[in-house]
Design a protein that fits this description.
The protein is an alpha+beta fold. It is built from seven helices and nine strands, in the order H-E-E-H-H-E-E-H-E-H-E-E-H-E-E-H.
Length: 217
């Protein structure tokens, strides 16, 4: 693996470990770059769950524990890390961008999915929204899907739509659900692997961003 591939593999493994738990067996392998995105690092991950989640969990978590829910979360995580890898900068930083630039890019590339003003999250979760949009396209369920609002609520991505197509609605909802689950391990500030942090507003933050915030208090 190259240094960029190793970095991407570490991040992807960390995201998936946080999402599925330390007992999950996770393997990550490099893949050829997609012709349309030669600047990205492409990886393929495999997750084997150690055991099923308890039966009394809520329906949302139960959906995530299905093979289909796990596969979608893994696919979106792969795409998210690939998108993020295009901004890797040595030794461990990211090429800066702005929320407005990323938002404008999404509205341009997915005008029907993201009407102007619907995107109300910061850069990391905007990149997660792009990963989900690419997943819609990859599964050929993008047509007819229109967002009404994409925001953060209670430290989770909340993605509302103006109804869903009858034939593809269930799969679209499952992809949105998987993206929302994945958001709970993505730092809202820097986009790295994070966790719930309390204090004022609950947020998802990595150790570095959380420490920086606490120093300012």
């Amino acid at each position: 693996m190259t240094s960029r591939e190793r970095r991407a593999a570490r991040e992807l493994t960390d995201f998936l470990t946080r999402l599925f738990g330390p007992d999950a067996t996770i393997s990550v392998d490099p893949m050829p770059a997609r012709p349309q995105h030669p600047e990205r690092v492409e990886l393929e991950a495999t997750v084997k769950r150690a055991a099923a989640l308890p039966a009394d969990l809520d329906k949302r978590t139960r959906r995530r524990d299905t093979p289909e829910g796990t596969a979608l979360a893994v696919e979106i995580a792969e795409r998210y890390v690939a998108i993020r890898s295009a901004r890797y900068a040595l030794p461990s930083g990211l090429v800066p961008t702005t929320c407005s630039l990323v938002s404008e890019g999404l509205e341009r590339d997915y005008a029907n999915l993201f009407p102007e003003g619907t995107l109300q999250v910061d850069t990391p979760w905007l990149e997660l929204a792009r990963a989900a949009a690419e997943t819609f396209a990859g599964h050929r369920v993008l047509d007819g899907v229109k967002s009404s609002q994409v925001k953060s609520k209670f430290a989770e991505l909340r993605w509302y739509t103006e109804g869903l197509p009858e034939e593809t609605g269930d799969e679209v909802a499952a992809i949105i659900d998987a993206a929302s689950c994945l958001s709970t391990v993505i730092c809202e500030t820097c986009g790295g692997p994070g966790a719930y942090r309390k204090g004022g507003w609950v947020k998802i933050a990595c150790d570095v961003c959380d420490a920086a915030k606490r120093r300012k208090l």
